[in-house]
Amino acid sequence: MNEYINDTNHYTNYQNEKESYIVTFNQYLESLRLNTYVSLARNTYWDASSNVNYSLSLSRDFDIGPLKKRLHFSNI
């Protein structure tokens, strides 16, 4: 209802979403003690150009004596 009222009053400063896709992949590589995460998101709009977002994340387990830590790297 708010979208209809805003549209009739010409307050349309938002993008009308058409489709949204999200693909994710997560895998733990036990031999390397490495966890990988990849994500792709794509949005299309009726009244604006589409956009695509990528994400990559890596984390690794390691031991320092009795102390166990997780090292995490992330990109985009």
From TrEMBL:
A cellular-component GO term for this protein: membrane
GO biological process: pilus assembly
Entry-linked InterPro entries: Fimb_usher
Top-level taxon of the source organism: Bacteria
GO molecular function: fimbrial usher porin activity
Protein name: Outer membrane usher protein
